[in-house]
Amino acid sequence: MSAMIKNELGKIMLNEDMLASIAGSAASENYGIVAMSSKNAGDALLQLVGSENIKRGVKVTVKDDTHIGIDLYVTLMYGVSLPAVANNTISNVKYRVEDMTGLSVEYVNIYVEAIRV
Questions:
Q1: What DSSP state is assigned to residue 13?
Q2: Average pLDDT, integer, range 71-100
Q3: What is the pLDDT of residue 60?
Q4: Residues with Cβ < 8 Å from 106, sequence gap 6 or more?
Q5: CA-CA 20 to 30 A from 65: which of 8, 10, 19, 111?
């Protein structure tokens, strides 16, 4: 399913993969996030062969034409404040996606898959 922005000139269709790329890029910028975790077998296979996939660890759910939800599967750095990293990441991802697309982000869930030293 794709999100859609309508205006007087027509429609803009926003693919879930494109939205996941924006969210993944924004999440990766945050201090304390070491890596994005694989959320499916295809992501794990790409990770094994060394391919960089900015969408890895990101799941976008389109609620309706203008509202989306984002789930992030992350590996965090040992010793950082988990709530602080999570709050900064949520704010950054929500801001970047809304600013770049004009869509409303209803939620950003963060799933900490691992902690790396």
A1: E
A2: 95
A3: 94
A4: 63, 67, 68, 69
A5: 111
